[in-house]
Amino acid sequence: MTAIVSSHPATEHEGLNRVSNGLGFITNHIHNSRLVYAGVLAAIVVLANAWIEPSGLGAWLALWAIVFAVAALLTPSSKNHPGVIEQWLQSQRNARANEQMWQLAMSDHRVMADLLAAHNSHR
């Protein structure tokens, strides 16, 4: 009988890493899809229609004001000028990346030295 003994037990679950990387990939590609923007906008229109129960001109005007406001927030104006939601999501991604870099710097003195050198050279 053969037994394999590892002196370095795994600190992370490989299957969980694959699932999380896959979800991140899907999220990044879905996030940039115009079809997703259209689907979210359509869902909001349906919810607004059910909520307002349009029966008069004022209700229809309110419904379309909501539709155009959501469209303005969701859709980017161009590749160089992202929408409000995209800007917020980018700031969240940047904050997450900064936190990960800081955690790495706290555990590795070489990374911390590089960060301090970059900070001092920037002054």
Q: What's the tally of helices?
A: 5
Number of domains: 2
**In oligomeric terms, what are we looking at?**
single chain
Uncertain segments of ≥5 residues (pLDDT<50)? none
Derived structural class: mainly alpha
Radius of gyration: 24 Å
The best one-word shape is elongated
Give the biggest sheet.
none
Distance between the termini: 64 Å
Count every beta strand, where a strand is a DSSP E run of 2 or more residues: 0
The proportion of residues in beta strands is under 5%
**Mean pLDDT score, rounded?**
76
- Proportion in helices: over 70%
Order of helices and strands: HHHHH
Transmembrane segments: 35-52, 58-75
Keywords: Membrane, Transmembrane, Transmembrane helix
Could you name the key traits of this structure?
mainly alpha; 123 residues; 2 domains; 76% helix
Describe this structure in words.
- Helices cover 76% and strands 0% of the residues.
- It is mostly helical and 123 residues long.
- The chain has 2 domains: 14-75, no CATH class; 78-123.
- The model has no long low-confidence stretch (mean pLDDT 76).
